[in-house]
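Reopening this ticket.

The earlier resolution said the output was attached, but the attachment link was broken on my side. Pasting everything inline this time so it's all in one place.
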Amino acid sequence: MQQPNNIKTCTPIAAAGTFVQEIRATFDPSFFALVSQHLYSSPNKAFEELVTNSWDADANNVYVQIPQNLHGPKAAIAILDDGSSMNIEGFEQLWSIANSSKRREQVGGRKKIGKFGIGKLATYLLCNELTYVCKAKDGVIRAVTMDYRKIDSDFNRRESSLELSVRVISDADLATVLFQYDGGQQIFDLIKTDIPDIQPTEEYFNEYGGEEIIPTKSENTWTLALLTSLKEQGRNIEVGRTRWMLSTALPLGSSMKIKYNDLQIIPSKSDVPITDQWAVGPELPFTEFEVEKGELISFKRDSNPYPRVVIPGLGEVTGTVTLYAESIAGGKSNNMESSNGCFVNVLGRVINTNGAGQFSVGSSGQGTYFKFRATVRVDSLDAIMTIQRDTLTESNPLRLLKAFLHRAFNFARQLDENAQNTLMASSSKTRKGSLNALPLSNLGAQMKASIDDITSLPVFVGDPGAIDLQRISQWLEDTEEGRYNAIEGLEMAAAEPSQPISSYDLNKRKIIINKNHPFVLEHSGTIEQRAVLEDMVVVNVLIDSYLYANGVDPKLIKDMATYRDISQRSVAQLRRNSPIQIINLLEEWKDQAKPLEEITGDALLYLGFSVERLAQSGQPEGIAEAFLSPQKEGEERGYRFTYDAKSTQKKRVSTGNVRISGLARHRKQHGADYSLVVAPDFQHGALSIEAEASQVTPITTNALGRLVSLTLNYGPINLVDLKHVFQYHRPEDVDQWVSDMESTLKLHKQIQLSTLIKAMAVARRGGSLDILSASVVAHNYQHITNDVSWPLKSHIIQVVKSLSMIAPRVISVDPQDNDRIFLLAPPDQIINELKRQIGSVPDALKSGIIKCIEEI
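Inline output:
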């Protein structure tokens, strides 16, 4: 085959040696598009593949050389190993693309990672020239160079093969050539000293377990992969990141050792203290796990020939489960990325180096998630490995492994929560004395003033309506006007989510933290978070007391407290899925059990319920509660219900999988009023009969998503109205109820967003924060439209609440005083943010205010 004139070899290694034979590289040009666009989009990931080849060659020692200046004219990347090498026949097999012989030839040594035979093409991203220099068993040093520019040319894009020249190189010629590259002399020195053994710097702990095969060291064979004429991707390789990747993704230890620019790579580990640790084997504290509700899988634990468990349908699993005393996410450990999560090793290679991917457990709202690390090796998953080699096809083995890891996480979470509760109890005893010592003389001064004017009570003091002069006088006497014993402690208590984050109880002399406040829900998962939360609310009381005592206008103090509350809610919301994301994820995750359970809880939160997530075997997914203020003394209007989510990869969940009787038992066990079960769809017939008999309400993910969309389009739905859904026990009746509610809302007269923005602009005072009166905005709207009867203040409040759910960072309503509207940006920025947020709302769910946003 002739070489096109526009292709020229430009580096010394590609021309070194004496020609002996042509070999034919066979390939499908589409493979290169696959590699560059899908398989190895990251240069760091592509580099990992080169070292994987050393593992497959049964190398004991690997030396990696990357120059500091990858943009220089002498820049080259070198990987040298002492594994079995290649002769001419080996070169031909090497360049038979997508026709790997590794698995077929394996008769001893390690299990091979390479499966599809295209890992070598990772270098296509990094360089124009890839040269293999090999010393095989016959003692001859041969070289072959692949020049990817020939494949990139129009001439060869139509071809399916390419001729490559095999050359023989003497020691002297090899030295001359290598010395022309940065780091080349070090590589040649290693070759001349027979690739010396890398001495371990410290004892190695194989947290993935399993059998570790140490191949017999090859006698005087070696392979050098040299990347020259680097492409932009190759010049962008990050030294620190690739070193970290090799320390986490590859099977290091006594079997294979790596030196990277003269620095030995050791497996990443954390220096955080360990609370508990179990080898996956006899130490594992459970012998069964639940895949779906009611589907229990039992497995055997064994210690022979090494700790392991054997799970029916999945096979052998080895590894380690660790619960740390503190977070190991991010900077707490030596890793460059998160060390927490579940890491899955297949045939010695970790397929998800970020600890998540297809194996996510927990969530950012669960403190245990940041302390949990599971490292498992499951070689049977090789059968369902995708061509990308970092994901697995959806299948029963994958489903079983996910459920097994969730069981391990839930056990660790329970252990962690018990430890936190013990620590909280002991720490509260020591904190009590320190809180007692905090002076509240500033509060005392304001309390004295309140004797003459009860309306001047600080905004954070309990319920002003329940406080009289006698109680104030008693407090002043007991605390010596706030100087001593003013804070006896802190207490978590349930209140409406719309109430402030904390208040001061004059009778108990305690700061009461609202456990249903969004900020508290997101920042009380660990003992550390709770301690910081407690300190924050104490500081708030001290600062607000100071402001009152020093004559700051009480109205301004109230505005500051309200803005602080709104800011806390906004920060908490950043950690959650937005309602628009919830709508989409209810559809996207309907076939994934744990994600569907998580997003169902998020949906109920946005509908206005307080949600307690349980997610434990034998328990409902969670409990939701509606906090409703009584209309008369002694009346209880609130209600609570258990909820569960049932995923399916089919169109409908079966009646047996829903297990209606179990849901009714959960309701009784937790003293709830109702039961709700969410699923993509339900089988007709028997399920409705059982649900009716057990008073369980089934709702589809579509119907739940529509309810969330109604809150976006028309504002929050009254929780009293939502209570009516529990009258229905057939899925079709629930769907009809949602449709009827939607039809009713659509009949209401709609506020025009463009007019509303004008009405708010007239009321603005200017500045980065404006506090507007809903009454004034309603009056301005009436004036603009020449309609003195509409809209009312309540209409304005409802629409602004809807807007705040879409874009909480730019507009909000005071949770305690709905007449106060907070504009956190100018009107034009508010419109832009609203338009940006609604871009992903499905067209079928757009109505009400979202339609208005589109049309403005």
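Reporter confirms the inline version is readable. The chain has five domains: 18-197+219-265, 274-413, 438-574, 579-747, 753-855. Residues 1-7, 100-108, 331-337 have pLDDT under 50 and may be disordered.
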